[in-house]
Amino acid sequence: MTATLDTDLLEDTAPAKVNLTLRILGRRADGYHELESLVTFTSLGDRLTLAPGTPARLDVSGPTAVQAGPVADNLVLKAARLLAERVPDLALGAFDLVKRLPAGGGLGGGSSDAAAALRLLARVNGLSLDDPRIAEAAVTAGADVPVCLAGKPRIMRGIGEVLSPPVALPPLFAVLVGPGFPLATRDVFTRLGLTPGERRGEPTADADLPADADGLYEYLAENGNDLEPPAIAIAPKVGELIAMLRRLRGCRLARMSGSGSTCFALFDDPRAAADAAVTLGTSHPSWWVQATALAR
Predict the structure, then answer these.
(1) Which of 137, 214, 277, 288 is most exposed, with minimal Cβ within 10 Å?
(2) Is 180 annotated as a binding residue?
């Protein structure tokens, strides 16, 4: 997560975001959905570099670069532009993004890339990540960008801009599986079908989050992903994937992450997660399958 300086080239990792829970509490009058989500991050991610003092641009490469869409629409450039609108004479530069995370999979790859861009620009310009202009640029860039900025486990609320202090999680190991098709966030929320002003729940207290593994799994079982049913209604294969993950040896919990098609299985033991990833990757070579540790 920490940017490093090497011959004037700054580098940062944009880790995958995992929504361990995702409760949709209601829909505001302005159409935005209010949520509560326990979010953590993985040891996997995209790589972003910045060459300060060169013409501002973005080059995208890597195994999932094709999925990232047009460069002009990339959130790295959007975040940089939003910060430049708020910081006079902001020093920019050339970004190089290596995409390793699948797009549209619910892992927040684009949001994490944007957060990495803001961290790199903050370093170049001597800005603190607590600078309110960075926070404003982050939330304007996208709902998931604020929680990705620090990359630590937190509970996020509101539309993503209200963050709890960092939370302590027990050691967790995961297998992430991208089945090869995206799910559009807009389509999933539309299928959920909340009308403006409709409420379906209230936020919990941060103190309710257990720090031990068994207690955490009980908490996760009681707080699922409210977007799973509408996602499965759109793409039944998501439900089939979750059922498959639950049958893996050593799996403690399996569900969908965020609003995308990527699903995850949690394990207590890293070897069990690695073995499960090998099994799935061998039997489904077209899937994106990765074993990873989750941030604590």
Answers:
(1) 214
(2) no
CATH topology of domain 4-163: Ribosomal Protein S5; domain 2 (3.30.230)
Q: Which residues of the chain have pLDDT under 50?
A: 2-7
pLDDT of residue 211: 85
Residue 290 confidence (pLDDT): 96
The set of catalytic residues is 17, 144
- The residue extents of the domains of the chain are 4-163, 173-293
The verdict on whether residue 102 carries a ligand-binding annotation is: yes
Q: Is 126 marked within a binding site?
A: no
104 has binding-site annotation: yes
DSSP of the chain: ---EEETTEEEEEEEEEEES-BEEEEE-TTSPEEEEEEEEEEEEEEEEEEEETS--EEEEESTTGGGG--GGG-HHHHHHHHHHHHSTT---EEEEEE--SPTTSSS-HHHHHHHHHHHHHHHHHT--TT-HHHHHHHHHH-TTHHHHHH-S-EEEEETTTEEPPP------EEEEEE-S----HHHHHHHHTPPTT-B---PPPGGG--SSHHHHHHHHHHS-BTTHHHHHHH-HHHHHHHHHHHTSTT--EEEE-TTSS-EEEEES-HHHHHHHHHHHHHH-TTSEEEEEEBP-
**Architecture in CATH for domain 173-293:** 2-Layer Sandwich (3.30)
105 assigned to a ligand binding site: yes
How many whole angstroms separate alpha carbon 213 and alpha carbon 29?
Answer: 38
pLDDT digits (tens, 9 = 90+) for 237-253: 999 999 999 999 999 99
